[in-house]
Design a protein that fits this description.
- This protein is of the alpha/beta class.
- The chain has one domain: Rossmann fold, CATH 3.40.50.
- It contains seven helices and five strands; from the N terminus they run βαβαβαβααβαα.
- A five-stranded parallel beta sheet has the order 3-2-1-4-5.
- α2 (about 65-75) runs antiparallel to α7 (about 165-175) and α3 (about 95-105) runs parallel beside α5.
Length: about 180
Protein backbone atom coordinates (compact mmCIF):
# COMPACT_ATOMS: atom_id res chain seq x y z
CA UNK A 1 0.00 0.00 0.00
CA UNK A 2 1.32 3.46 -0.92
CA UNK A 3 1.99 5.93 1.83
CA UNK A 4 0.48 9.42 1.72
CA UNK A 5 2.81 12.42 1.97
CA UNK A 6 3.62 13.12 5.61
CA UNK A 7 2.93 9.57 6.82
CA UNK A 8 5.68 7.64 8.53
CA UNK A 9 7.97 6.07 5.98
CA UNK A 10 6.87 8.27 3.08
CA UNK A 11 9.46 10.06 0.98
CA UNK A 12 7.68 13.44 0.85
CA UNK A 13 7.14 15.60 3.90
CA UNK A 14 4.08 17.80 4.16
CA UNK A 15 4.98 21.49 4.31
CA UNK A 16 3.51 23.00 7.49
CA UNK A 17 2.66 26.69 7.08
CA UNK A 18 1.43 29.12 9.69
CA UNK A 19 -0.50 32.19 8.56
CA UNK A 20 -0.81 35.37 10.58
CA UNK A 21 -2.77 38.19 9.02
CA UNK A 22 -3.86 41.58 10.22
CA UNK A 23 -4.01 45.23 9.34
CA UNK A 24 -0.77 45.83 11.31
CA UNK A 25 -1.58 49.53 11.58
CA UNK A 26 0.82 49.52 13.40
CA UNK A 27 2.08 46.10 14.40
CA UNK A 28 2.67 46.01 18.14
CA UNK A 29 4.06 43.77 20.85
CA UNK A 30 0.68 42.05 21.21
CA UNK A 31 0.98 40.85 17.62
CA UNK A 32 4.55 39.70 18.26
CA UNK A 33 3.48 37.89 21.44
CA UNK A 34 0.55 36.21 19.67
CA UNK A 35 2.85 34.89 16.95
CA UNK A 36 5.46 33.79 19.48
CA UNK A 37 2.83 31.88 21.47
CA UNK A 38 1.38 30.27 18.33
CA UNK A 39 4.75 29.17 16.94
CA UNK A 40 5.76 27.68 20.29
CA UNK A 41 2.66 25.46 20.18
CA UNK A 42 2.41 24.74 16.45
CA UNK A 43 5.61 23.60 14.81
CA UNK A 44 5.74 24.96 11.28
CA UNK A 45 8.23 24.90 8.43
CA UNK A 46 7.25 28.40 7.38
CA UNK A 47 5.19 31.30 8.72
CA UNK A 48 3.64 33.89 6.44
CA UNK A 49 2.80 37.31 7.82
CA UNK A 50 0.08 38.77 5.60
CA UNK A 51 -0.88 42.42 6.05
CA UNK A 52 -4.47 42.98 4.99
CA UNK A 53 -5.03 44.77 1.72
CA UNK A 54 -8.59 46.07 2.00
CA UNK A 55 -10.20 44.55 5.10
CA UNK A 56 -13.89 43.62 4.96
CA UNK A 57 -14.53 44.21 8.67
CA UNK A 58 -12.76 47.52 9.24
CA UNK A 59 -12.64 50.91 7.63
CA UNK A 60 -9.94 51.29 5.01
CA UNK A 61 -6.74 52.34 6.73
CA UNK A 62 -5.42 55.83 6.22
CA UNK A 63 -1.97 54.26 6.40
CA UNK A 64 -0.95 53.08 2.91
CA UNK A 65 -0.38 49.36 2.42
CA UNK A 66 3.31 49.92 1.60
CA UNK A 67 3.87 51.52 5.02
CA UNK A 68 1.99 48.76 6.87
CA UNK A 69 3.92 46.14 4.88
CA UNK A 70 7.26 47.71 5.84
CA UNK A 71 6.25 47.95 9.50
CA UNK A 72 5.28 44.26 9.44
CA UNK A 73 8.72 43.42 8.05
CA UNK A 74 10.30 45.37 10.89
CA UNK A 75 8.08 43.80 13.56
CA UNK A 76 8.59 40.23 12.29
CA UNK A 77 12.18 40.14 10.97
CA UNK A 78 12.48 36.35 11.22
CA UNK A 79 9.42 35.60 9.09
CA UNK A 80 8.33 36.06 5.50
CA UNK A 81 5.99 39.02 5.06
CA UNK A 82 3.75 38.59 2.01
CA UNK A 83 2.28 41.40 -0.07
CA UNK A 84 -0.30 39.10 -1.69
CA UNK A 85 -3.32 40.96 -0.30
CA UNK A 86 -1.83 44.37 -1.00
CA UNK A 87 -1.43 43.59 -4.70
CA UNK A 88 -5.19 43.22 -5.09
CA UNK A 89 -7.62 46.11 -5.32
CA UNK A 90 -10.44 43.86 -4.10
CA UNK A 91 -11.61 43.41 -0.53
CA UNK A 92 -9.31 40.91 1.21
CA UNK A 93 -11.12 37.83 2.46
CA UNK A 94 -9.35 35.04 4.34
CA UNK A 95 -11.02 32.42 2.14
CA UNK A 96 -9.53 33.98 -1.00
CA UNK A 97 -6.07 34.21 0.57
CA UNK A 98 -6.21 30.57 1.68
CA UNK A 99 -7.38 29.44 -1.77
CA UNK A 100 -4.46 31.28 -3.36
CA UNK A 101 -2.02 29.76 -0.86
CA UNK A 102 -3.32 26.25 -1.57
CA UNK A 103 -2.55 26.82 -5.26
CA UNK A 104 0.92 28.14 -4.46
CA UNK A 105 1.72 25.35 -1.95
CA UNK A 106 -0.19 22.25 -3.10
CA UNK A 107 -0.37 19.55 -0.46
CA UNK A 108 0.71 21.89 2.35
CA UNK A 109 -0.99 21.90 5.73
CA UNK A 110 -2.04 25.34 6.98
CA UNK A 111 -2.70 26.89 10.38
CA UNK A 112 -4.37 30.26 10.72
CA UNK A 113 -3.20 32.05 13.88
CA UNK A 114 -5.86 34.35 15.36
CA UNK A 115 -6.57 36.13 18.61
CA UNK A 116 -9.54 35.05 20.69
CA UNK A 117 -11.26 38.33 19.82
CA UNK A 118 -11.38 37.20 16.17
CA UNK A 119 -12.61 33.73 17.13
CA UNK A 120 -15.75 35.30 18.57
CA UNK A 121 -16.66 36.73 15.16
CA UNK A 122 -15.34 33.84 13.07
CA UNK A 123 -18.75 32.53 12.01
CA UNK A 124 -19.42 35.91 10.36
CA UNK A 125 -16.39 35.56 8.08
CA UNK A 126 -17.02 34.94 4.40
CA UNK A 127 -17.25 31.16 3.78
CA UNK A 128 -16.08 30.34 7.30
CA UNK A 129 -16.97 26.64 6.86
CA UNK A 130 -14.73 26.43 3.79
CA UNK A 131 -11.93 28.15 5.74
CA UNK A 132 -12.13 25.28 8.22
CA UNK A 133 -11.66 22.83 5.33
CA UNK A 134 -8.57 24.68 4.10
CA UNK A 135 -6.76 25.21 7.39
CA UNK A 136 -6.73 24.60 11.09
CA UNK A 137 -7.41 27.53 13.38
CA UNK A 138 -5.06 28.14 16.28
CA UNK A 139 -6.49 30.69 18.71
CA UNK A 140 -4.33 32.62 21.16
CA UNK A 141 -6.03 34.07 24.21
CA UNK A 142 -6.52 37.79 23.65
CA UNK A 143 -5.63 38.42 27.31
CA UNK A 144 -1.95 38.21 26.41
CA UNK A 145 -2.39 40.92 23.79
CA UNK A 146 -4.23 43.73 25.63
CA UNK A 147 -3.03 46.32 23.14
CA UNK A 148 -5.04 48.24 20.60
CA UNK A 149 -3.53 49.57 17.38
CA UNK A 150 -6.14 52.35 17.51
CA UNK A 151 -4.87 53.45 20.95
CA UNK A 152 -1.30 53.38 19.65
CA UNK A 153 -2.21 55.51 16.61
CA UNK A 154 -4.04 58.02 18.82
CA UNK A 155 -1.41 58.16 21.61
CA UNK A 156 1.88 57.17 20.04
CA UNK A 157 4.17 58.57 22.74
CA UNK A 158 2.13 57.05 25.59
CA UNK A 159 2.17 53.60 23.95
CA UNK A 160 5.73 53.73 22.59
CA UNK A 161 6.77 50.86 24.90
CA UNK A 162 4.15 48.60 23.25
CA UNK A 163 5.68 48.80 19.78
CA UNK A 164 8.83 47.06 18.58
CA UNK A 165 11.62 49.69 18.59
CA UNK A 166 12.27 49.36 14.85
CA UNK A 167 8.57 49.98 14.13
CA UNK A 168 8.49 53.03 16.41
CA UNK A 169 11.60 54.46 14.72
CA UNK A 170 10.00 53.91 11.30
CA UNK A 171 6.76 55.62 12.39
CA UNK A 172 8.73 58.66 13.60
CA UNK A 173 10.93 58.71 10.48
CA UNK A 174 7.90 58.61 8.16
CA UNK A 175 5.75 60.95 10.25
CA UNK A 176 2.92 58.44 10.57
CA UNK A 177 -0.03 58.85 12.98
CA UNK A 178 0.28 62.61 13.51
Amino acid sequence: MDKKPGEAGSQAQVLRIGIFGGSFDPPHNGHVNLLTTATQKIKTDKVLIIPTGTPPHKEISATPFAERFKMAQLAFPNYEVSDMEGRSQKVSYTIDTLSELHKKYPGARFWLFIGSDMKNSFKSWKNYAKILELCEIYTVNRDIIQISSTNIRNNLIEYKHMIPAAVYDYIIQKGLYK
